[in-house]
Every structure is written in structure tokens, then in C-alpha cells.
From TrEMBL:
NCBIfam families: menD. It comes from freshwater metagenome. Residues 380-504 form the Thiamine pyrophosphate enzyme TPP-binding domain. Residues 6-121 form the Thiamine pyrophosphate enzyme N-terminal TPP-binding domain. This is Unannotated protein. Pfam families: TPP_enzyme_C, TPP_enzyme_M_2, TPP_enzyme_N. Residues 171-359 form the Menaquinone biosynthesis protein MenD middle domain. CDD domains: TPP_PYR_MenD, TPP_SHCHC_synthase. SUPFAM superfamilies: Thiamin diphosphate-binding fold (THDP-binding) (SSF52518). Keywords: Magnesium, Manganese, Metal-binding, Thiamine pyrophosphate, Transferase.
Amino acid sequence: MSEATTLARVIVRQIIESGITDAVLSPGSRNSPLSIAFYQAEKRGLIKLHVKIDERGAGFFALGLAKASGRPVPVICTSGTAVANYHPAVLEASHTNQPLLVLTADRPARLRRTGANQTTEQARIFGKAVRYFADISGAAYPMELPFNSLQSGPVHLNIQFDEPLVGDSDESWLDKITKNAPKVFDRKSPGTFHTKSTRGLLVIGHDRAGLSQESVLDFAARLGWPVIAEDPLSFKDAISHASVFLTSTKIRSEINPDTVVLIGRTTLSRSVNALIAGARKTIVIDPRMATVDQDRRADQKFLALPKIEVPAADPDWVATWKKLGERAAKVVAELNTWSEEICAREIARSLPSGSTLFVASSRPIRDLEGFAAPRDGVQVFANRGLAGIDGNISTALGIATAAEQTVAVLGDLAFLHDVSALTHVGEANLRIFVIDNDGGGIFSTLPQAGIDGFEKIFGTPHGRDIAAIASAFGVATTTVTNSADLVKKVAAPISGCEVVVVKVPSRQENSDYLKSIYAKMESL
């Protein structure tokens, strides 16, 4: 019996007994004790082990799995640069309070700073991005893992394994393991929200601050105010296309709210943030103010949904918002130029009820916010903690592993950024729609557009055949160039992994078209 084997078995046993059902592993030598212990546990049906060769992708796959399952997910790697490759996923988990349990294998502390192979300072490598850190040596057991810390974000255990790394093959240590139900962490109500305002507005950020959709829907119903939702596919009673018609400064000035209640963060539209900034009073509800957003500013701040004591909303105020939404919906419904905006509208409308959707950052998520008609029946995910385009395919694969039918909408650069994830797609039923405009389309809609050197340093045209690249990984591919074919692919059943390349007009054409749509809002 090796000390490393004993330590690994203690850790894996506690993970299983805590109710964790999945683990994500990247192969390596120093993490052999954990790899073997997890494999033995999987043979007994005690856990599902997912093997991903690229640690960066493995981290995002585990993040997606945690998002979709609502349970902590361990992610396990060897020492050295493998650990650093987890950092982007750990940061995303930190800014969304996701329960990522990072298990990094290390050499004994006595070998640090001695020139030993594959040895660096792994202790506290993630800094303040984790809620708990421990540098565990072989003498640490018996020990208790810090599962409670996972309720507010990622946890990092750096585990020192001394040789020999491979012990006996006995599996009797698994005989009396009891799988418990995962612990559910409930936050107590932080108090009561009082106001005399009858002209209030509820704004819901894309990830709802990690709060459940059901609880936010109940809160919105009790509040009775007009609702702007960055994710309109989760709130069917939200005002239609608010981020689009609020681009009009005239409209914003006419419907300036007295009080805004903001759940989470608004990170997508300058128009919505401009409206919030003009309110007399702002109330923020977000658990992350206890972890990563301690300096949020608002007139009142709550870490959970408060009780409500508010008067009935002004009927004329509610009617004005509804009328604006209806007029904007008419304009959006009449759009008929093949474009990224049409893609967002048709994908949102055509998704079968019960679908799961992952949306990449940059233009796709903004187009869905602006051009998707509010509806329900779709579970929506996105990496909005830091809004990166890295790891998007991996995250979508992790989500799809815990769902039945998943659609992902990515830009072409987000696809290329994480294309190595296609080396091992597993058993996920995932259809990836890649909006291909040959480069970074969002920059054509930002102040950087048109500056000297724009194409080289912002537009970054790639000139690659997305379908050919996906096919080279053995993934089924299709290319669509019109609304009718797009709708058919969105509505079709999903079996396995498939990439659908959506060829759209140039980035400049799309920017010009978007401006023309905004111009129409001035006459609502």
C-alpha cells in the first residue's frame, strides 16, 4: 500500500459520499493515484468519469456540467502547466459562484524550487478566485474535504503525491461506500424591500445572479412591474426587444423609471444600462456581492430575493412599456434581410420546447437578447461571469452531457478558439450553430469600428472553412444560407454532435443593417 494510493482513496470516497455524481479527468502521471481510484469507483457504478485530454477544455466541460446539473463537479489534473490551464474556467466559476472542485496533483513540497521536473508553485495559483484552498500532503488523512465552501464558488485542493504513485489493485475500499443526496444550500431571506414608487422596473441579468428561474418568476409576479430580461427565452412576460427600442434616446427619456430593481448584472446592452443609470433609485439583488462583487453600488443591496412591500404599479406606466414592446415586436417580425439578427430571431422561435440552449459571448448573446421574442420552455446557459469566448464548445458539451437535447450558438472565433474540444465529444446530443462572418463581428458595432488597422487588430478575418475543420474531427456538418434551412435544422431532433455553419453577410453589412434597425426605433 502506497501513501499516495491511500490519500487518493480517502479523497475519492468522500467525494462519492457527498453525493457528487460526475468527475472530469485529464491524463497524467502525478495524478495517477486519483485517476486509478476514480476509475475503480466508476467500475462499481459509483461515479461517472469523463476523460478530456486538454485541461483548459476539461475545466470548461466541468463548468458546463456543474451549471446544468446544479451539483459540484471535481476536475482532476497532473502537475505543472496542466494546473495553469484550469485558470480561465476557475475564474468563470468564481464570477458565477459555480461549485467547481479543482484537484491538482503535485510533487512533495520538498521538491519545489529544486529544479525537479514538472514542479512549480501550484499553491494558491488561483489566488482570490477560489473560496477555499488547501495544500495537502500525504500525512493529511484522516481529513474532511471542504464541501461547504463549494456553495459559493470553486475550491482548490493541491495534493502532494509522493512515489510510488501506483499501489495495490485491491478494490475492497469501495465495498461500504454510501452515496448520499447532494447537500442543498438555502439562503435565508435578507429582509424586505420597501418603496412607494409606482413607476418601477425589474431588470434581470442573463444568469439571474445564480438564482433559480422559478424563484425569480415568483418575485417578478409579486412585484408586478414591467420586466426587462437579458434572457428573454426564460421570461415569456418580459417586454419584447427592450434593448433594441431603448437605443432611442427619445424613448429612454420618455420612460425613465423612478426605481429599478436589478437581479444580477446587466452586461450586454449599453441602452439598458443607460436607462438604469437614469433611475432615481437602484436596488441590486445578487449573492455575488458576498464573494467577488463586494463594491457594487446601489441604494439598497440584497444577497437573496427579499420580501416585497410595494404599491400597485401605475397602469399607464405598465401599458406604455407593453405598447413599446408590441411596436418593436412588429418591426422585428417584419425584418426579412438574411442577417445575424434574423438568425437569432428564428433560432429562438424554432427551438422545441424542452430544449437546452448555450449561447456564446460577443454578438450571438446580444442578438438573442435583442431579437428573440420572449417565450418559455427553453433552459438557457451562457458564460457571463467574465464573458469570455474561450472554452465555449467545452462548456456546451458539459451542459449537453447533463441534458437531453442541447443547441449551442457560437460565433466563428469562439468556435475556432476551442475547436480542440471536438477531439472528444463523448455521448452528448449537441448541435452547434456557428455564425460565420469571417471574424470578430462585434467590433464592427463598437467604437473601434473603422479605425486605421481595424481588420488586422480587431476584425481578424480567419478565412477558414469551418465545415471542413469540423469534418476533420469526424463531426457531422451542414451549411445553411437562408432562414428556411436554418429553421429546419433548429427544429430537427438531435443525435450525437453536429456542427451547422450559418453563412451570413459580411461584418460591415451586418453593422449597417443593425444601425438601420435602430433607426426604425426612433419612430415607434
